[in-house]
């Protein structure tokens, strides 16, 4: 995808020498990769309430509600039936099923690999396989 963007950028610099078929081909390849990426990373029936920002390689499960005001760092996984609003999730985070996070921060490399959590105004850190193992600070 970045390669196609770079080539398109190079082509449009020389406006007088543009070959329309080259641009069409590059745009087609670019948009094909865009749609494929979304299908690879987003489950069924997601809802996004902007602003929502997803870094690279974020996987979103089924029936997920994101927003408003959500940032999800690279290489993170949001499992099924999750609601997230006003929350920052740093890189390499795994969020379990049926979570509701409101006004939270999830630290880098955290893995919350369990089901059913409802948290507000909290910093979540570390690895937990159950709610009793969860490390958090309310703010």
Fold blueprint:
Blueprint: H1 2-13, H2 20-41, E1 47-48, E2 52-54, E3 59-60, E4 65-66, E5 70-72, E6 77-78, E7 83-85, E8 87-89, E9 94-95, E10 99-102, E11 105-106, E12 111-112, E13 117-120, E14 122-125, E15 127-128, E16 135-138
Parallel strand pairs: 1-4, 2-5, 3-6, 4-7, 5-8, 6-9, 7-10, 8-11, 9-12, 10-13, 11-14, 12-15
Antiparallel strand pairs: 14-16
Helix pairs in contact: 1-2
Q: How many alpha or pi helices?
A: 2
Quick one: how many beta strands? 16
Mean pLDDT metric: 88
Low-pLDDT segments, ≥5 res: none
CATH architecture of the largest domain: 3 Solenoid
Rg calc: 19 Å
Terminal Cα separation, in Å? 40 Å
Under CATH, the homologous superfamily of the largest domain reads Hexapeptide repeat proteins
Please summarize the sheet with the most strands.
Answer: 6 strands, mixed
Give a description of the structure:
This protein is 24% helix and 32% strand. The chain has 139 residues and is an alpha/beta fold. The strands form three sheets. The chain has a six-stranded mixed sheet with strand order 2-5-8-11-14-16, with no helix packed on it. The protein is elongated. The model has no long low-confidence stretch (mean pLDDT 88).
